[in-house]
């Protein structure tokens, strides 16, 4: 029984990146032996265990044979006779197929170190094509390591194109595709994810709305290129959480889509409501937010009502933040326009419903009087603003 550190921990150490998690492969052991040593089995399809003290993942060395469609159609062999080299051969990329002996020695039968030196993402073997999820994984790795100037090997690009054309990508679950999309959108260069899928014709099955027109695709790529975090961003809203950044990035992905198209994409990928709500609001109102019609009190009041800016101010803030890259690609000076919207919303929020009720207004007339007072406050702000400067 021998244990080796494998995968991302080895790869990122060689790239001088922070190691987030450590995974191990165990050669020459059985399930019974792992359980006897106190490990907890967590893998249903594959023999994966958690270390009793560190909770790191330990998987028995295994080989896999394709038995059906998708990423779950495999027959697994995890007998003690499976060698380390056989286990590494089933992995996706050579840079992920490097193991480290406890004494620090690297075992690299498929040239992963050379590919790291050459900054190349290359598939280990033709077995790569048996798992369609790898198309999205490679796109994600290309996105993550774009800043290091990594590229995908031509033969791997060709194989990914074949996989996309085979229709196998349809067999994936929405949850798995969304997870790869989400992780890619949170990387520093999210546009690369879309560009890779475009180049291998991998957008058709899951992101069909993006290729309904060249403009839709171009807008998505350009808007994602303009998404930045915190200090780099021209939005006044500081991005504090990954979910906030994801909302902005996914809205950028949908920047060239209509509201129905954005809704369809969200439903297909089963995007969480917190993210899809922002993207759909951006798609619904972006034309108004970028047009001269915005400088009318009734337009802004309708926007605030439809976006429920009164009860969901944090979400509305994200909508405005997500407009920053869209404004940039449409050559609209957003900061000043954004400031006006915020000032108008604050003015409208100063209307006190209790004061209206105290005047004797009752029933449905309360809402009418409330909207009228909000309209007047918004109009007062606009009248004191130099619209020509916006």
Automatic annotation (TrEMBL):
- Return one Gene Ontology term, BP aspect: tRNA 3'-terminal CCA addition
Transmembrane spans: none
Q: Tell me, what's a Pfam family for it? A: PolyA_pol_RNAbd
Residues folding into a coiled coil are none
Q: Quote the record's binding site residues for CTP.
A: 8, 11, 91, 137, 140
**Required cofactor(s):** Mg(2+)
| Ligand binding (Mg(2+)) | 21, 23
Domain tRNA nucleotidyltransferase/poly(A) polymerase RNA and SrmB- binding: from-to ranges? 150-201
Looking at its record, which EC class is this enzyme?
transferase
The record ties this protein, via CDD domains, to: NT_ClassII-CCAase
Gene3D superfamilies, alphabetized: Beta Polymerase, domain 2, cca-adding enzyme, domain 2
Indicate yes or no for the key word Transcription regulation: no
PANTHER family reported for this sequence: MULTIFUNCTIONAL CCA PROTEIN
Q: What gene does the UniProt entry assign to this protein?
A: cca
Q: What else is known?
A: A single active site specifically recognizes both ATP and CTP and is responsible for their addition.
Q: Which family does it belong to?
A: Belongs to the tRNA nucleotidyltransferase/poly(A) polymerase family. Bacterial CCA-adding enzyme type 2 subfamily.
Q: What does this protein do?
A: Catalyzes the addition and repair of the essential 3'-terminal CCA sequence in tRNAs without using a nucleic acid template. Adds these three nucleotides in the order of C, C, and A to the tRNA nucleotide-73, using CTP and ATP as substrates and producing inorganic pyrophosphate. tRNA 3'-terminal CCA addition is required both for tRNA processing and repair. Also involved in tRNA surveillance by mediating tandem CCA addition to generate a CCACCA at the 3' terminus of unstable tRNAs. While stable tRNAs receive only 3'-terminal CCA, unstable tRNAs are marked with CCACCA and rapidly degraded.
Residues bound to ATP: 8, 11, 91, 137, 140
Output the Gene Ontology terms for molecular function. ATP binding; CCA tRNA nucleotidyltransferase activity; magnesium ion binding; tRNA binding
The UniProt record lists the EC number as 2.7.7.72
- Protein name as annotated: CCA-adding enzyme
Q: Which UniProt keywords apply?
A: ATP-binding, Magnesium, Metal-binding, Nucleotide-binding, Nucleotidyltransferase, RNA repair, RNA-binding, Transferase, tRNA processing
């Amino acid at each position: 029984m021998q244990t080796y550190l494998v995968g991302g921990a080895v790869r990122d150490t060689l790239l001088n990146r922070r190691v987030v998690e450590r995974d191990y492969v165990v050669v020459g052991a059985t399930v019974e032996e792992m359980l006897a040593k106190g490990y907890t089995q967590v893998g249903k399809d594959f023999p994966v265990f958690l270390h009793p003290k560190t909770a790191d993942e330990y998987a028995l060395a295994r080989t896999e044979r394709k038995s059906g469609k998708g990423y779950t159609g495999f027959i697994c062999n995890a007998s003690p006779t499976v060698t380390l080299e056989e286990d590494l051969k089933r992995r996706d990329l050579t840079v992920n197929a490097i193991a480290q002996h406890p004494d620090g020695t690297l075992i690299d039968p498929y040239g992963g170190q050379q590919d790291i030196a050459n900054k190349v993402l290359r598939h280990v073997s033709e077995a790569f094509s048996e798992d369609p999820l790898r198309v999205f994984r490679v796109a994600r790795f290309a996105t993550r390591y774009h800043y290091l100037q990594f590229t995908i090997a031509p033969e791997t690009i060709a194989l990914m194109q074949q996989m996309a054309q085979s229709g196998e990508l349809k067999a994936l679950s929405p949850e798995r595709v969304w997870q790869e999309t989400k992780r890619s959108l949170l990387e520093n260069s999210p546009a690369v994810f879309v560009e890779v899928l475009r180049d291998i014709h991998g957008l058709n099955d899951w992101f069909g709305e993006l290729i309904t027109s060249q403009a839709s695709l171009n807008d998505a790529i350009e808007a994602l290129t303009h998404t930045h975090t915190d200090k780099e961003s021209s939005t006044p809203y500081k991005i504090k959480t990954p979910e906030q950044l994801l909302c902005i990035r996914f809205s950028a992905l949908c920047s060239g889509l209509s509201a129905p198209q954005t809704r369809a994409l969200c439903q297909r990928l089963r995007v969480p409501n917190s993210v899809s709500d922002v993207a759909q609001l951006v798609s619904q109102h972006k034309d108004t937010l970028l047009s001269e019609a915005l400088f009318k009190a009734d337009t802004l009041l309708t926007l605030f009502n439809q976006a429920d800016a009164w009860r969901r101010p944090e979400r509305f803030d994200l909508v405005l933040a997500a407009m920053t890259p869209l404004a940039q690609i449409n050559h609209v000076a957003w900061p000043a326009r954004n400031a006006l919207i915020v000032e108008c919303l604050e003015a409208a929020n100063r209307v006190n419903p209790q004061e209206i009720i105290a005047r004797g207004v009752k029933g449905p007339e309360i809402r009418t009087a409330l909207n009228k007072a909000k309209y007047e406050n918004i109009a007062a702000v606009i009248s004191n603003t130099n619209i020509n400067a916006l």
